[in-house]
Amino acid sequence: MAKRTKKVGIVGKYGTRYGASLRKMVKKIEISQHSKYTCSFCGKTKMKRRAVGIWHCGSCRKTVAGGAWTYNRNTGRLEAAAQEMRQKLPPSSPASVTPLQCNIRNENEVKELVSSVLKQYGRIDFLVNNGGGQFSSPAEHISSKGWKAVIDTNLTGTFQCCQAVYSSWMKQHGGVIVNIIADMWKGFPGMSHTGAARAAVDNLTKSLAIEWAASGVRVNAIAPGTIFSKTAMENYKDLGPQLFRMSVSHCPAKRLGVPEEISSAVCFLLSPAASYISGATLKVDAGQSLYHSMWEIPNHSAWPEAPEGENLDAMKELLNPQSKL
To answer: How far is the C-alpha of 72 from the C-alpha of 129, rounded, in Å?
Structure first.
């Protein structure tokens, strides 16, 4: 049996939209690798190699050894997320959770973050960029300050995290990067700033996948569709119920997604099962980005339900307690 090695990853937590909703994704992932590059989650097979990162996957239930770092510029939210992670760890788990304050718009803070991880763990095996922030506004009313804030967070912050991790570790040792973007394929009216930034990250993902391939670095992106969470409802306030209800009719699954369904995709892209995938953007939207007004999809309940949890319960309460969501 191959020697077990600890792996370390960084996942951003910025506190808005997906960054905030993914705050709940705090369990560890367990990956087993076989000689023929097959992969199994949840300890269904004997493990030869393990990987650890701060990400909750609805289908993963075990925790393995290693280090987990989460970062955010809001110390209160950061410590709360770290504490939640610790509470979900089994008493016998050797895993650790380390919160560290970091504003990803500040290049020096990003470099200090990476330096701190390397100092404690001596390696960084993966990076998940799910930091982000935006606000609703018609393009004509977006100020230059507001535009810059969103671009600096969603685009520049992502680039700075990628660059720092690559230069400090992955250039010599390889690794995996996953960038979380958005469903902006048909434009993003009402949030043109974040639509432009997310589209840029999609292109950045492709560029880095080619530039860093010779270093053994895989770079991919995930584009979530309409993802419901209690945090998103709080962020969008009165606009939230309207947005979510409207999205259901345009989704082939006739239901919304939940954060746990995004984390499953992240687990896949980080795992050896995706060892031949790089430069790709995985759309996790139940086909919503393909919606066409010339083809009507009748209401149905044929798709599997979303993973159980507080987000599913809140979604049912908002939309229709009797429906399959």
So the answer is: 12
- The position carrying tokens 């999809």 is 297
How are beta strands 126-129 and 175-180 bridged, if at all? parallel
In this prediction, residues 60-68 reach a mean pLDDT of 36
CA distance 66 to 126: 13
Tell me which amino acid residue 67 is: G
Of 238 and 53, more confident: 238
Pairwise CA distance, residues 113 & 104, whole Å? 9
Asked if 62 and 88 touch (Cβ cutoff 8 Å), the reply is no
Predicted TM-score (pTM) of this structure = 0.79
pLDDT at 193: 93
pLDDT of residue 292: 81
Paired residues of 40 in beta bridges:
32
Distance CA(60)–CA(307), nearest Å, equals 12
Average of pLDDT values for 287-312?
85
At residue 176, φ and ψ (nearest 5 deg) are: -135, 135
Torsion of CA 287, 183, 61, 50, to 10 degrees: 110
Six token digits for residue 164:
């720092």
Higher pLDDT, 41 or 294: 294
Delineate the domains of the chain, giving CATH numbers in brackets.
8-247+257-294 (3.40.50.720)
Q: Residue 310: exposed, middle, or buried by beta-carbon count in 10 A (0-12, 13-18, 19+)? A: exposed
Where does residue 264 fall: left (phi above 0), alpha (psi -120 to 50 degrees), or beta otherwise?
alpha
Dihedrals phi, psi of 10, to nearest 5 degrees: -120, 135
In the predicted model, what is the mean pLDDT of residues 177-191? 92
**What distance, in Å, lies between the first and last C-alpha atoms of the chain?**
43
